[in-house]
Design goal:
This protein is 0% helix and 60% strand. The relative contact order is 0.30. The chain has strands spanning 10-16, 19-24, 29-37, 44-54, 59-61, 64-70, 75-78, 82-85, 91-96, 99-100, 105-115, 121-128, 131-132. It has no helices and 13 strands. Strand 2 and strand 3 form a beta hairpin. The chain has a six-stranded antiparallel sheet with strand order 1-2-3-4-11-7, with no helix packed on it. The structure holds zinc ion (ZN). Zinc ion binds at residues 28, 54, 56, 58, 60, 128, 131.
C-alpha cells in the first residue's frame, strides 16, 4: 500500500456571505469547507459543511483524516467523524471511516466548533490514509 503525506496547494480562497469557502488540491481529494451558521452574538457554535471529491486511481478503505485550520482557536463540539487531536487549538484532526470509491463525491456533514466571533477557515485537507489499488 502506498502512503504519502503531502501538503496540498490552495487553489481558491474567497469570502462568501455565509462564511469562508476554500478548496485545496493535492494528494487525491479536492476538499472544500465553509461556515454556514455562526452565532448571532459573542462566543458560540459555528457549523461547517465539509465536502470532498475523490479524484484517484484507487479506492479509500475506511481511513481518512480531515485536517482543518482556523484563524483562531476552536473547541471541538461534534462531527460525523472522531476527533483525533487539536481541541482548543487552531487546527483539528478528525478521523473518518468511509469507503470512498475512486471518483466519489463525499459529503462529510456538519462539523460544529465553538469559538469567538470572527472565525475563518484558513486551510482544509482530507487525507487518504488507506489507499487500495
Ligand atoms: Zn485516495
Amino acid at each position: 500500500m502506498k502512503k504519502t503525506y503531502e501538503r496540498p496547494v490552495v487553489l481558491a480562497n474567497q469570502t462568501l456571505a455565509e462564511g469562508v469557502f476554500l478548496a485545496s488540491g493535492g494528494d487525491c481529494y479536492t476538499t472544500s469547507a465553509y461556515i454556514h451558521q455562526s452565532p448571532e452574538t459573542g462566543r458560540g457554535d459555528f457549523r461547517i459543511q465539509v465536502n470532498a471529491d475523490h479524484n484517484a486511481d484507487h479506492n479509500s478503505n475506511k481511513n481518512q483524516c480531515l485536517h482543518i485550520t482556523f484563524n483562531q482557536p476552536v473547541n471541538y463540539k461534534s462531527s460525523q467523524g472522531t476527533l483525533e487531536s487539536g481541541d482548543g487549538t487552531c487546527t483539528l484532526d478528525i478521523a473518518y471511516a468511509y469507503w470512498n470509491n475512486h471518483t466519489d463525491h463525499i459529503g462529510l456533514g456538519d462539523l460544529v466548533v465553538e469559538s469567538e466571533p470572527g472565525l475563518a477557515i484558513t486551510f482544509v485537507w482530507l487525507e487518504d490514509r488507506a489507499k487500495q489499488y
